[in-house]
Amino acid sequence: MIPLVVLDMAGTTVLDDGLVEQAFLRALPDATPAMVDHVRVTMGQSKIVVFRELLNGETAAQRANAAFEEAYAALVAEGHCAPVPGAPEVITDLRTRGAKVAFSTGFSRATQHVILSALGWTDRADFTTTPAEAGRGRPYPDMVLAAVLGLGLADVRDVAVVGDTPSDVLSGLRSGARVVAGVLTGAGSRADLAAAGATHVLDSIRDLPAVLEGF
């Protein structure tokens, strides 16, 4: 059994259903179609980095990021937050079988906490991390490596990384993880995830335990 599984949140373990895009449009109601397309292409990446790419100046980026966090929290408070079907059971199964579970995200710590609290998942993982805390967000490997260091693993190859975007896949590959699985419950298509180099492309996280039985 692989001793550490690093799981993305929105689109992988938590249903997105367009929430990121909705929050973005609430934060920037005058966004152009090109800006919306950029948000879609960069799903999984650090949100403050995305705003820096879209807007001129750090002040504007920080203001938009704060508005995004407020809008996302409001959507969660309105009841738009639920687990991907089967995700709670898979996470419980992994931990019962002795694996450590880490949650990574492109959101800030504040938004991550809002989601985990709404789901009752504040004690569901052994480790949680964000781009700001790890150093850099996806597609860099920092969050995976932060989990490796934080949980005291001896070898980065003793890791499975699971996410729904090409950025998730690249992050896992660059970290040296043995299993880098893409799931089809979020933003990435089968072709996108395979092209990024995923070792496995799964219909959902429900299929992960069967994959890990071979390791």
From TrEMBL:
Transmembrane segments: none
Alphabetical UniProt keywords: Hydrolase
A Pfam family the protein falls into: Hydrolase
UniProt GO cellular component terms: cytosol
GO terms, molecular function: phosphoglycolate phosphatase activity
A GO biological process held by the record: DNA repair
Alphabetized PANTHER family for the sequence: PHOSPHOGLYCOLATE PHOSPHATASE (PTHR43434), PHOSPHONOACETALDEHYDE HYDROLASE (PTHR43434:SF19)
Stated name of the protein: Phosphonatase-like hydrolase
Organism listed in the record: Saccharothrix tamanrassetensis
